[in-house]
Structures are given as structure tokens and as C-alpha cells.
From TrEMBL:
Nucleoside triphosphate pyrophosphatase that hydrolyzes dTTP and UTP. May have a dual role in cell division arrest and in preventing the incorporation of modified nucleotides into cellular nucleic acids. This is dTTP/UTP pyrophosphatase. It is found in: Cytoplasm. Keywords: Cytoplasm, Hydrolase, Nucleotide metabolism. PANTHER family: BIFUNCTIONAL DTTP/UTP PYROPHOSPHATASE/METHYLTRANSFERASE PROTEIN-RELATED (PTHR43213), BIFUNCTIONAL DTTP_UTP PYROPHOSPHATASE_METHYLTRANSFERASE PROTEIN-RELATED (PTHR43213:SF5). One of its GO terms (biological process) is nucleotide metabolic process. It comes from Marinomonas spartinae. Belongs to the Maf family. YhdE subfamily. Its main location: cytoplasm. The active site is at 83 (proton acceptor). One of its GO terms (cellular component) is cytoplasm. Gene3D superfamilies: 3.90.950.10. InterPro entries: ITPase-like_fam, Maf-like. It is an enzyme of class 3 (hydrolase).
Amino acid sequence: MLVLASASPRRKELLGTLVKEFAVCPADIDETPHEAEAAHDYVTRMALEKAQAVAEQYRQKTGAHSDQNLTFKRERCVILASDTSVVVDEEVLGKPVSFDDAKRMLRLLSGRSHQVMTSLCLCDVDGEHVQLTNVVTDVSFRSISDVEIAQYWRTGEPQDKAGAYAIQGLGAVFVSHLSGSYSAVVGLPLYETSQLLALYGIHSLEEISHE
């Protein structure tokens, strides 16, 4: 069984293009960056801790049972976790807490390039087999006016998005160039995810083609 450790509808939709069936179990962790923590280290740590948190939930569910069927399900359970952060000048831009916060972020991104880092972690329930990777995509924005920022904020789109924009939505009008993985910027890099899933015996084309 594959478990997606995220409540993101975007990750759920993207994973659904690779596999037909999976469970969703959001991870509840502290996402505060450590002092002086590098962006790459932060994003990778977030994916690992999300996977570990969900794995712990499944261990608690199955650890107290001696039923062989439950034990088998536990052994076959694979956790997939991901984290996406927008990074500019080594600063990790999270989700804006207010219009002023979103305005500050979009001003930082206006007329220049930034990086979107999306980490992946796949592990078994007992944490004996862990695979980690981080996908970095370069994104360039055209210049954005304060009027456009205010109008964009009123759409409601940037309010729960890292870096205060959604490339799969209206935020795409700001993007002048992208180098890397589009799906990673949305929230789940499909190529890298399919490669890691294959290491656990989950092959995307086989999963999708089976009736």
C-alpha cells in the first residue's frame, strides 16, 4: 500500500497520474526552519520528517496487533512525503500570513529568477529503507507592479501557496521562463517520483495500465 503524507490536492492529483490507488495521511509536524539552516537542508528535512511522522502513525496502528494480515500490510506499506519551498537569496519563502507578507514575497521575486526546491522521501513503515532526493527548478518572473500584486491577492490564490504564487494557476502570468521540472514546482516531480517508486516495486505504467 502506498501512503501519501500530504493533504495537498495538487500532490494528490499529480500522484494519481502515476498510480491508481493510494491512501492519504497528512503529516502534522513543526515546519519552522532551524537557525542558519540551508534551504536545501530544510526542504530535505521536511520531507523526511513528514514521512517519519506518518510512518510512526502506522506503526502505532499495527504494532499492538499480532494478526498476520495486519503485519503483512505493515510490511507492504510505503510512505511518500514531499515538501516544496520557494527560495530567493537563500531565504525560504513559506506561505504568506497576510497581504503585506505576500506583497513582500512577490516584490522579492519580481523581475528576477528564483529557485523552487521540491524534496521527496520514500520509506517503509519501520524506516529501514529510506530514499531522499531534492529537485531544484529555476523560475524567472517578469516585473510585477504593486497594482498587480494587490489584484492577485484578491483572487485568493496566493494565500496558501509557498512564495505567494501558484504556477498552475493565475500566477503563471508572472513566469517568463522555467528551467527544470514543472510538476516539481506544482508540488510533486513526476519523473523523480516514478523513479523512486520503482525502487519499491511500484511501476507507474504497470499501475495505470492494469484494468
